């Protein structure tokens, strides 16, 4: 004897429902410098309308955001600020590295420009280009939403993985080439 459910009742797993809510209500925290910041602003404008994808509310308070978009070059002086903002954001949180400068340092191969923010904070999506088009950022947000839907859990266990919690590349001591190891 099967139990019949009314038409307005939906049965689902709690993880799936929580992931659906998270993916459709991203609140971005813009960390924008230089030309990539202009493209980030264009993404929120009426022509591209980021609101269609559930990520329209740009907040400038890290305690209200769950998606950091780092757009443009980051210099060493700004890095502590970037890390502090990242630590102030509540879990679950995600990061998009927008542009060649944020991802790899771009054409600025100098001592003062960070050669990729993934050395200091975990990055979920990379948007290539110099500067990337707003359509590329929208596609990255759609891809991130798919990732959130696939991997999300209610208790946030996906953020406890060793890749996410381990030491970052720039913080690991590397041996000096052609030098004997100190013992």
Describe this structure in words.
The protein is an alpha/beta fold. It has one domain (20-153): Rossmann fold, CATH 3.40.50.12280. Helices cover 32% and strands 10% of the residues. It has six helices and four strands. Strand 3 (94-98), helix 4 and strand 4 form a beta-alpha-beta unit. The radius of gyration is 19 Å and the shape is globular. The model is unreliable at 169-174 (pLDDT under 50).
Tags for this entry?
4 strands, 183 residues, Rossmann fold, four-stranded parallel β-sheet, alpha/beta, 6 helices
Give me a quick take on this structure:
With 183 residues, the chain is α/β, with parallel strands linked by helices. It is 32% helix and 10% strand. It has helices at residues 14-23, 34-44, 79-88, 100-104, 134-151, 162-165, and strands at 28-32, 67-71, 94-98, 125-127.
Question: How far apart are the first and last residues' alpha carbons, in Å?
Answer: 74 Å
Could you describe the largest sheet, including whether it forms a barrel?
Answer: 4 strands, parallel
Would you tell me which CATH topology applies? Rossmann fold
- Proportion of residues in β-strands: 5-15%
Strand order of the largest sheet: 1-2-3-4
Can you name the CATH architecture? 3-Layer(aba) Sandwich
Uncertain parts = 169-174
List the helices and strands and how they pair.
Blueprint: H1 14-23, E1 28-32, H2 34-44, E2 67-71, H3 79-88, E3 94-98, H4 100-104, E4 125-127, H5 134-151, H6 162-165
Parallel strand pairs: 1-2, 2-3, 3-4
């Amino acid at each position: 004897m099967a139990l019949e459910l009314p038409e307005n009742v939906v049965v689902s797993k709690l993880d799936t429902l929580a992931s659906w809510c998270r993916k459709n209500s991203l609140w971005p925290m813009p960390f924008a410098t230089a030309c990539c910041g202009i493209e980030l602003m264009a993404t929120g404008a009426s022509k591209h309308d980021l609101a269609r994808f559930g990520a329209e509310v740009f907040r400038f308070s890290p305690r209200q955001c769950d998606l950091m978009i780092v757009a443009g070059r980051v210099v060493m002086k700004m890095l502590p600020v970037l890390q502090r903002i990242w630590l102030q954001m509540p879990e679950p949180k995600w990061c998009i590295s927008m542009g060649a400068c944020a991802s790899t340092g771009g054409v600025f191969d100098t001592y003062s420009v960070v050669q990729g923010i993934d050395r200091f904070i975990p990055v979920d999506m990379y948007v290539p280009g110099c500067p990337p088009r707003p359509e590329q950022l929208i596609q990255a947000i759609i891809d991130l939403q798919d990732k959130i839907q696939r991997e999300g859990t209610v208790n946030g266990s996906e953020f406890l993985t060793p890749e996410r919690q381990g030491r970052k590349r720039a913080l690991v001591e590397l041996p000096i080439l052609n030098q004997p190891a100190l013992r």
